[in-house]
Amino acid sequence: MNKNKLLVFFIINGLFNLAANYAHPITPTVIKNLELGDYMFGVAYGAMIGLNFLFSPFWGKLNEQINSKTTMFICSLGYAIGQILFWQSTSQNTIIFARMFSGVFTGGSYVSFLTYVVNVSPPEKRGQNLTILATVASVCASFGYFIGGMLGEISIDLTFATQAVTLAGCGILFFIFCKKDIASPVKQKFSVLIKQANPFNSFKQAKIFMDKKYFIIFTICCLAYLGFTAFEQSFNYYIKDIFNLTSAYNGVIKAAIGIISLIANGTICLWIIKNTNVSKSSMYILLLSSITMIGVLATNNIIIFIIMNVIFFALNAIIIPVTQDLVASRSNDNNSSIVMGFYNAIKSLGGIIGALMAGFFYTFNPRLPFIFGLIAFLLATFLSYYYYKRNTKYRN
């Protein structure tokens, strides 16, 4: 029964991740049509991910008091409303507000996904199920780009309308089909919940579990997401701005990435988690990603540029579940909600810095965001090497 419930959850989660990415390939077109500055691709995404960052710990704490499926329902509906606001935006300020509104609820969605999988999985299956979750997110995100890109060729309005309806529908499905994942919810007064809604107070919960090892792991995660976001957001806008490719091309490229990621996660990633020292393996994956990023910067040929980016995104699809496993393997039943909430917040922090820096660097030189992302990945690689050596020395 638990396996069936989890399977249904992964199916709905896949549909959610498809819909969550419908608007990404058309965002550069929206910015160009409204004649906004080039920096807006970074500012718009940074606005969303910024509120994701601020509210993730709050949603993580809230999941201790109400079941994750309820939070998924609330946040899916909120995300749908946010995308409707984005759809109707006609200026820089309204776009930023709409993205911030969506960000509040995307944080809750992804924290709840992680918390749900951790809570309903037996300890021996936790790493495997988190890998499946990351694989579903990565692959479906890529195909979501594809669908969104194709819908964008037909109509921008159709893309946004389809996205909003699908997100809202997923929220309803989560609530109906997911099981209750906490047996004894923590009951607190509404006034206490309002106080905890202060996002900065929520970060104080990190002191419950934070130690030096966690600090290093979270720094690695932050740097990796910083570099990835700078690359991804710049790539989406770069191929529209420099190569003048339509949203359909963006969608096709991301679909190819999705297929490669599916194969990589179903084979390489699971093998790494089951059969290797994960901290050592993550170091090598980060190194390979850095080398690939150098390849992106070394070419002006559009074909080679796209191929190197596809390889980079495929490697990133592996590093996400690997780092998730590093974090989750050190958590326990008492702190899993807070740990995974903080993990999602750290991802968002990297995304904020990566998106904003990419947008502003792009206005000076379209290649600068890629250089910035490379530096972040090199730092993550060196820090991962330090973490591995420290653990090896400790065990010896």
TrEMBL record:
Residues 5-392 form the Major facilitator superfamily (MFS) profile domain. The keyword Transmembrane helix applies. Keywords: Membrane, Transmembrane, Transmembrane helix, Transport. Its main location: membrane. The chain crosses the membrane at residues 39-59, 71-90, 96-118, 130-148, 160-178, 214-231, 251-273, 285-304, 310-328, 340-362, 368-388. It is a multi-pass membrane protein. GO terms for cellular component: plasma membrane. It comes from the Bacteria. One of its GO terms (molecular function) is transmembrane transporter activity. InterPro entries: MFS, MFS_dom, MFS_trans_sf, MFS_Vesicular_Transporter. It is found in: Cell membrane. This is MFS transporter, DHA1 family, multidrug resistance protein. It comes from Thomasclavelia cocleata.
